[in-house]
Design brief:
7-stranded mixed sheet; Diaminopimelate Epimerase, Chain A, domain 1; alpha/beta; 539 residues
Length: 539
């Protein structure tokens, strides 16, 4: 690098800076990890070229800022990089065969884990496997089948290791599944997950770092330059730091340290003590955003005002008592951290807004954006207006709706599913709204999310078309708005001199990409801090 030259020069058909009112540029220069200059003339920055400058002459290309995924779980993607790839199965026999193949090469007594990014309705049998079926695969290994972040199925070996019997008390906010005969079927939900997962040894540090190398490149290959990882344990964060030191972290990470499974402020205080050493990091690649709470369940247990369509005696579950959650959230913000809380059903959204309102009243002067609502799935008009009035940002995840619409219609019915993630209404109210995927429940990808928000397409057709937004609005939710959510609008989100050189290059203008072609469109180049990460070397 020199004081006057460029390390990177891109000439393109259009560089969309996302600066309001600015016409597309044609050339962009990078010095170090920052944007140095832009020009409307493709040759307007040629004076910055020197012998060391990398020049990308791309006359048909479109350049955009790199995207944020503001609610995802890259940690899960990294763990899954070396787990049994059951997301490839289309039937339960195929599912079981994949586990059987792994069992054949796994020493007796060692745990077998599966990937998490699959849905049972994608299996021909349209259901989860059972403990009894897993037992036919192996009785010499404990097996942990994960689906998303809220559901596990384990075999009898794992149940025995955990000491779970038909007499085991069900943890508050959790479920221990039983079959029609009343016997344990191996399923564990939400606050029951830890009964087994506490016994699963973490992969060794080298395996985990390699998983993060693969996963972070996979995110970048779809145009994502920053992830807001929304359930990171303290040990996960230590691994992220080790991956960063090893040069294996290819996206920026803003970690939400997980308080999932906790039910008291005292437990949260202990977590905050652990977090103290991570407070003052100046690393732009990796930092702690705040703390993640879960107020209700996921697809099968989101807390709703009205009973479920499939069970009129059930309306989901709240994991925290509101008074206890107020104390826990206060503990976090009084130590200067931010809070993101999972609230999916409308009863959970209402309860969370009650909690946040009390915290704001009792802690005047909190910095803007200190309290964030994750998902806000079924937020209705009154709740949306309350969130805006209270200054509560919300993250939405259209890929989650796309991939799970059929599952959710079973639980909530078509009318409620069509109301999920009402992006149009949030934007029209002036809400602080940003977008993500919620991988592994939804599939990550910059344009996959944009396509979903502009079409409202799902695996079972268009749902809630009145909630669709424009292409430009959808891009803003992943760039300008996302950077603001992270408190980094002065560093990222637009292509402006002095900001990080986080950008994506597309071989066509995504704004004019027709139909489903946009869903599957990936960039030819993704740069994070001026460093190139390409799809070709993602593995």
């Amino acid at each position: 690098m020199t004081d006057h030259g460029a390390d990177l020069l891109i000439r393109a058909d259009a560089v969309h800076t996302l600066v309001p009112g600015q016409a597309p540029q044609r050339a962009l220069a990078v010095r170090g990890d920052r944007i140095a200059a832009l020009s409307p003339d493709p040759n307007g920055l040629d004076h910055l070229v020197s012998a060391h400058t990398r020049v990308h002459d791309l006359p048909g290309a479109t350049v955009l800022p790199a995207f944020d995924d503001t609610h995802t779980h890259m940690i899960f993607a990294a763990l899954g990089a070396q787990d049994v790839p059951v997301h490839r199965a289309r039937t339960i026999p195929e599912f079981l065969d994949l586990i059987r193949e792994r069992a054949a090469v796994t020493p007796e007594g060692e745990w077998i884990r599966t990937t998490t990014n699959w849905q049972e309705l994608n299996l021909a049998e349209r259901r989860l496997p059972t403990a009894a079926e897993l037992d036919t695969v192996t009785d010499r290994h404990p097996v942990l089948v994960k689906r998303g972040g809220h559901n596990d199925v384990v075999n009898s070996y794992a149940l025995r290791l955990a000491g779970i019997t038909e007499d085991t008390p069900v943890p508050p906010g959790g479920t221990i599944g039983r079959g029609a005969d009343g016997r344990l079927d191996g399923r564990l939900v939400d606050n029951a997950l830890h009964l087994v997962e506490r016994l699963v040894p973490a992969p060794d540090r080298a395996q985990r770092i390699e998983g993060l190398r693969i996963a972070s490149r996979d995110y970048a290959a779809t145009g994502i330059g920053t992830v807001r990882d929304c359930a990171v344990t303290p040990e996960d964060y230590r691994v992220l730091r080790a991956a960063r030191e090893a040069g294996a972290l290819h996206t920026r990470v803003r970690a939400l340290i997980s308080a999932l499974g906790m039910t008291s402020a005292a437990q949260v205080e202990d977590l905050l003590d652990v977090m103290e050493e991570w407070r003052d990091t100046a690393d732009p690649q990796l930092s702690v955003w705040g703390v993640k709470f879960g107020l209700d369940g996921g697809l099968e247990a989101g807390a709703t005002e009205e009973p479920y369509a499939c069970d009129h005696s059930f309306s989901g579950m709240l994991i925290w008592e509101p008074d206890a959650l107020v104390e826990a959230v206060e503990a976090v913000v009084r130590r200067g951290w931010r809070v993101g809380t999972h609230a999916y059903g409308d009863r959970a959204v209402r309860t969370l807004l009650d909690v946040y309102e009390r915290v704001l009243e009792r802690n005047p002067g909190l910095p803007a954006g200190s309290l964030v609502m994750e998902h806000g799935g079924l937020a209705g008009p009154e709740q949306r207006a309350r969130a805006v009035a209270l200054g509560i940002p919300v993250t939405i995840q259209q890929p989650l709706l796309h991939d799970t619409a059929e599952v959710e219609e079973v639980f909530w019915g078509p009318e409620r599913v069509a109301r999920l993630f009402p992006a149009r209404a949030w934007i029209d109210l002036g809400a602080q709204v940003s977008a993500g995927s919620d991988f592994p429940v939804g599939q990550f990808g910059a344009m996959r999310s944009v396509w979903g928000m502009t079409t409202r397409q799902t695996v079972i057709g268009v749902k809630g078309p009145e909630h669709a937004i424009t292409y430009d609005e959808a891009v803003a939710l992943h760039t300008i708005n996302a950077a603001r959510l992270c408190g980094e609008e002065h560093l990222r989100g637009t292509l402006t001199p002095g900001r990080f050189a986080d950008l994506t290059v597309w071989d066509q203008d995504p704004a004019h990409c027709p139909g489903e072609a946009l869903r599957d469109l990936n960039p030819t180049h993704t740069f994070v801090g001026g460093l190139l990460i390409t799809p070709a070397d993602a593995r």
